[in-house]
Amino acid sequence: MLAPQRQAIILDEVRRTGAVRVANLVTRLGVSDMTIRRDLDALARRGLVDKVYGGATTVGGRSTEEPGFEAKSARQLVEKDVIAAAAAHLVRPGTAIGLSAGTTTHALARHLDDVADLTIVTNSVRVADALQRTGRSDRTVVLTGGVRTPSDALVGPVAVQALRTLHLDVVFLGVHGMAPRAGFTTPNLEESETDRALVAAAGRLAVVADHSKWGVVGISTIADLSEADVLVSDERLPADAVAELSERVGDLVLAPIPAESP
Predict the structure, then answer these.
(1) Residue 62 and residue 60: Cα distance in Å, rounded?
(2) At CA 68, angle to CA 64 and CA 69, rounded to 5?
(3) What is the pLDDT of residue 207?
(4) Are residues 243 and 222 in contact, defined by beta-carbon separation less than 8 angstroms?
C-alpha cells in the first residue's frame, strides 16, 4: 500500500473516532511503527491531525469543538496521571466528593482506590465505572443521569436537578480550557450548566487541568478563576500562567513530571 493510501485511511479513522494509536495502526495496516509515525508526521505537517504521545487526534481550536472521550484520553497522559495523583491527596476518608466528567477526573478516580469510606457523585459513566471496579464495600457511587455528550458527560435538566439537592465537601472539576478573562470553560452549553450546578454543590472547588488547557477558551464559562479554592496542574504550565493563576486561585499546585517523560 502506498503512503497516500495509508494516510487517507489514517485520516478517515481520526475523523471518525477522534483519535488513533500507533500500535493499533501498525496491526491494522501491517506496516512498521516507524512507517506509521512518518505518516502521522506527514499529516501533522499538513495541519490535518495533532500528534500526541502514542498517536494522533483531531485538530482543535474552535470554541464549540468538543473532542470525544477517546480523543482527549490520548492527550497529555503523563500530565494527567501526575495531576490525578496530586489531587488524590486532597481527598479525606469519610467525605462526600464530586467528580465532573473528563479524562483528568477519570484518571483521578483510578487514584482513589486507597481512600476509605467515600461517597462520590459524578455525571460521568466512565468515572462511575472506574470507581465501581475497585469493589470497595465502603464506597457509595452516585450517577446523576442525564443526556450523554460526545465527551461522555451526562448533562441537562435531569443532571442539574439531581445536583441542586446535594452538598459535597469538595468537587473536582475537569475543564476544556482556562484563561484570564473567560475563566474555566467548556465547548458544550448544556455541560456548562451541569458543571455550574456541580460547582454550586461544592464546599470547596478543586480544578484539575494540565498545562495545555491554558489559553484555551470554550464557548461557555463554568467558573471564574477566583472561584477555585485549589487548581492542580503540572510543572509544564507556562510562567505567565503561573503568575496569573497564583494571584487568582486560592492555591496553585504544580505536580512534577518524571524526568524520563517525553
Answers:
(1) 6
(2) 130
(3) 98
(4) no
* pLDDT for residue 56: 81
Give the per-residue pLDDT at 69: 54
Instruction: Check residue 47 and give its pLDDT.
Output: 77
Please list the ranges in the chain whose pLDDT falls under 50: 61-64
Planar angle of CA 197, 128, 94, nearest 5 degrees = 75
Burial of 248 (0-12, 13-18, 19+ CB in 10 A): middle
The dihedral sign for the CA sequence 242, 217, 191, 130: negative
pLDDT tens-digit readout, 17-73:
667 889 889 999 999 999 999 999 998 888 777 787 778 876 654 444 555 555 555
Q: Residue 24 and residue 27: Cα distance in Å, rounded?
A: 5
The three cell numbers of residue 95 are 467525605
210: left (phi over 0), alpha (psi -120 to 50) or beta: beta
Structure confidence at residue 59 (pLDDT): 66
Cell of 151: 465527551
51-to-7, 8, 73 alpha-carbon distances in Å: 14, 16, 13
Beta bridge partners of 119: 96, 140
Contact between residue 116 and residue 97 where contact means Cβ atoms under 8 Å apart: no
Angle at 150 between CA 249 and CA 219, to 5 degrees: 45
Residue 91 contacts residue 227 (beta carbons within 8 Å): no
Locate cell 481527598: which residue? 91
